[in-house]
Amino acid sequence: MLLELAVGDAYGAGFEYAEPAFVAEFNTGDHYVQHRKHHDISPGDYTDDTQMTLAIAELLVDGDAWTRENLADRFVEVYRRDERYGYSTRIHTLLRTVRDGAELLATVDDNSDRSGAAMRVAPIGLLAEVADTLRYADVQARVTHDTEDAVVAAQAAALAVHYCHHRLGPTSDLPRWLDDRLPGDWASPWQGPVGAQGLMSVHAAVTALAGATRLSALLRTCVAYTGDVDTVAAIALAAGSRAADLAQDIPRSLHDGLENGRFGRDYCIALDARLLNALS
Ligand SMILES: [Mg+2]
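That is the input. Now the predicted structure with magnesium ion docked in place:
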């Protein structure tokens, strides 16, 4: 799951808010592209979505208490050990200046409904119970995004993984299943460009998942929306990687092209195994 999420994030990063004509020409699904404006991020590099997901996954694997303080510590730790671009200016400025989670909690302006709380939530969906999935997603969201919309978006992204991982139905029924459990209109299909709000990214990802039969096409569908597509792809690929009715056909070129430094591809694969082992 972490590997597919990272591939979605890294692939989508080349197309984040890119011109529709650029997306139409280069969204072939078989290689990473250089973003036209973000030269700090190379093809195959993942961004904030994956890095913060590693923080969540590591806290789950280590089994420490699920508290704001522990989550904030992990968010700071994963950034400081591997500083990178792709964060929103609000969070990036914070992560570059604070020394630990306590300082983050003391200084963060958490009044945000953007997608940062939903993009990192996938590992929580592996928990055995819906109630725990909802609660864990809520707690982690409010560390940086203490708004109802951001919390619901995070809960929906976590439940999408939960639904697929625990085989609760065909992926095509995911929108209806979410609609029965969360506020908002999850059953209507998302259309058009994806903005910065968390509800937008997750809604787009859920629509893409419902129409998907294979991961490779799911990735292209997420990017074809245009807008904040690295986050849409990260959320959708994480859930899709746990879906029994989707062909697991990430192209070899994207697998091999994913960054593989200290916290890159091999690290994601190893942590994936520890995560599934710890939670099942
Ligand atoms: Mg990102």
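The two ends are 14 Å apart (CA to CA).
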